[in-house]
Design a protein that fits this description.
This protein is an alpha/beta fold. Helices cover 31% and strands 29% of the residues. The radius of gyration is 19 Å and the shape is globular.
Length: 283
């Protein structure tokens, strides 16, 4: 039997994105689509909130991580057999899964790892699911086969036209709607700017839209207040009230401004991290 919070499997999806499966049987037993965990790589590590991508009968819980900051770089360098310090969850309110109807599930980039379990749950519940996945280019497309199995129709979009539909997910969604497809609801997860414009589009067509928010988060209990978002003029906390909210009520501009708070800090830490690695290689 694996050790507590041991990395059971690790898979590089792209040079910058990795899928890590951690032994956490209690989490695996309780988790539902849309919920997340908070982990620490070691006792001095920061808390990293990550939405659960999948759970497995062997007690494994998979999360997909993009190596963009100091802590995610550290996680990305860990190997099978290594153990995490903490792996807490499941946290957050599960995504509400409709029983039947026509739905569009939209993922942007790494958001496709979150869109996948939601699409699968809706598909299994009898919904007619169109899954739209957006990426910058073909070489960073992830989870295509798994997404294809979780929906009726999969539409891959690339910004540069190197694969699938040439354009943004919003353009693909608009094309489908204008062709006569009638959606009962839309679920979107990905970059804030993407979700903002998905919601702007669906509001024009009066299509109910839910979005999954992943703002700055620390404790996951609503006590720190870092994950606050304004929804319908009221302050909500993504960790306990969400992460899913009515996209037509979310103040995306405020959330994007708050999300940029530590951008320069993370860029500097990434440079320091790369310099340390270069020093080790040259030693």
């Amino acid at each position: 039997m694996p050790n507590k919070y041991e990395i059971m499997r690790k898979e590089d999806l792209t040079p910058d994105v990795v899928r890590v499966t951690v032994y956490a049987p209690l989490v695996a037993r309780k988790a539902k689509p849309g919920q997340f965990i908070i982990l620490r790589t070691d006792e001095r590590g920061e808390r990293i909130p990550l939405t659960i991508s999948s759970c497995h009968e062997d007690g494994g819980v998979s999360v997909v991580v993009q190596k963009v900051g100091d802590s995610t770089m550290t996680l990305g360098e860990m190997n099978e057999g290594d153990c995490l310090q903490d792996f807490v969850g499941p946290l957050g309110v599960p995504t509400e899964i409709p029983e039947g109807g026509k739905v569009a599930v939209i993922g942007g980039g790494l958001g496709c790892a979150i869109a996948l379990p939601v699409a699968k749950a809706m598909h299994d519940a009898g919904c007619d699911v169109d899954l739209i996945g957006g990426f910058r280019s073909k070489n960073i497309v992830i989870l295509e086969d798994e997404m294809k199995a979780a929906c009726h129709n999969l539409y891959i979009c690339t910004d540069d036209g190197s694969y699938g539909f040439n354009g943004m997910v919003t353009a693909q969604l608009k094309e489908l709607i204008d062709s006569g497809v009638k959606y009962d609801m839309v679920f979107a997860v990905g970059p804030l700017i993407m979700m903002k414009f998905v919601c702007k589009l669906t509001k024009e067509y009066n299509i109910p839209t839910m979005v999954s928010m992943n703002p700055i988060m620390i404790d996951g209990t609503g006590m720190c207040g870092c994950c606050r978002v304004t929804v319908g003029g009221q302050v909500k906390f993504a960790c306990v009230d969400g992460p899913d909210f009515d996209g037509h009520l979310v103040d995306f501009d405020e959330t994007m401004a708050r999300a940029a708070t530590y951008k320069e800090f993370e860029i500097n830490r990434r440079r320091e991290h790369q310099c340390r690695l270069e020093g080790m290689q040259n030693a």
